[in-house]
Design brief:
89 residues; mainly alpha; 0% strand
Length: 89
Amino acid sequence: MVFLLVTGGALGPVFLAAQHAVLRCAPGRTDLALAANSGAYHAGMAAGAALGALALPYAGVRGAFLLGGLLGAASCAVLLADRRPRARA
């Protein structure tokens, strides 16, 4: 239960950090950039719920959580692999 509280509380700052990065990339069209960011965030939540619902009958509750954890670890690996030095603006 504590883990769920910690991860749930961490989602707010992640979304705000993503919004900050989007605003830095698209300073001229912030309204469109924020709308696209919000849409992608909600589409990701819907896709995760759909994958969990598909995995649940085949793998059970434990397997659905394992699938979610593996997908989360894979996404972290992709993000860490993309850590190139960036030029300062």
